[in-house]
Design a protein that fits this description.
15 strands, 203 residues, three-stranded parallel beta sheet, 39% strand, mainly beta, ten-stranded parallel beta sheet
C-alpha cells in the first residue's frame, strides 16, 4: 500500500578490556522516528584531550556523541572514565529523513538509498541520554575535568555511577531533565560521600 512503518534505531554494544578501531562510521543506528542505543565497555575510557596510552585505554573524540543516530549512550570503564579538561560534548540524535520519490523504491530496498541523515530542530529532536559508569571496586573513578562541559538536550537524563570516586570540576547541563551522581560500593551499598566532589561550575 506504499506505506513505510517508521521505527527506532537498533542497539549496538561493544565490550572488551581493550577496544580499538571505534571510528566515526563504525557504529550507527539511525531511525526514522527514534534513535538507537549504544553501549561501550573498556578498561579505561577518555573523551578528548591528550590520548591516554595506559593499557586498556580507549580514546573517544567529542564529536562521537553527535554521530551515529543514537538516543542513548552507555559508557562503562573498569577503572577510570575521564572527560579531559576543556572538552565539550553535545549528545545529539540524528535521524533519517525520507527523500522525495521514496515510494518508487521496491520492498527490500535499503533505506539509506532514499533517505538522508538530518539533525532535527531543537523542538522536535529526541533527547539523547548519557549513562557513565566506573565499576571496579576500590578503583572505579569518573573524572570531569576543569572546563569540561556536557551539554545535553532538554529533558535528557544524565547519570554517573562509580565505585570509588566521582569528581566533577566541569559543567553538566540538561534543562528540564535529570542529572544523577551515585557512589556505589560492592553489594549495591552507597559509597563514601566524601568521594563525591563537585566543583563550582558543576551544574
Amino acid at each position: 500500500d506504499g506505506k513505510i512503518v517508521s521505527g527506532k534505531g537498533g542497539e549496538v554494544g561493544v565490550s572488551g578490556f581493550t577496544v580499538t578501531g571505534l571510528a566515526a562510521d563504525t557504529a550507527t543506528a539511525y531511525g526514522l522516528e527514534k534513535g538507537g542505543q549504544f553501549t561501550l565497555s573498556s578498561g579505561r575510557i577518555q573523551i578528548g584531550g591528550t590520548p591516554d596510552t595506559e593499557l586498556g585505554a580507549l580514546n573517544l573524540d567529542p564529536g562521537f556523541f553527535e554521530r551515529g543516530g543514537f538516543a542513548g549512550f552507555g559508557l562503562t570503564a573498569l577503572t577510570q572514565l575521564t572527560f579531559a579538561e576543556g572538552v565539550q560534548i553535545k549528545p545529539r540524535v540524528k535521524n533519517r529523513e525520507l527523500q522525495p520519490g521514496y515510494m518508487l523504491h521496491t520492498t527490500g530496498s535499503r533505506i539509506k538509498d532514499f533517505s538522508r541523515v538530518v539533525t532535527r530542530d531543537d523542538q522536535l529532536r529526541q533527547a539523547a541520554n548519557l549513562a557513565l559508569a566506573a565499576r571496579q571496586e576500590g578503583a572505579g573513578e569518573i573524572l570531569i575535568g576543569q572546563g569540561a562541559r556536557i551539554d545535553a538536550d532538554p529533558k535528557a537524563k544524565i547519570t554517573l555511577e562509580a565505585r570509588n570516586l566521582i569528581d566533577i570540576q566541569g559543567r553538566i547541563t540538561a534543562p528540564g531533565g535529570t542529572i544523577t551522581a551515585l557512589l556505589n560500593s560492592s553489594g549495591g551499598e552507597r559509597g563514601n560521600p566524601s568521594n563525591l566532589w563537585l566543583g563550582k561550575e558543576a551544574v
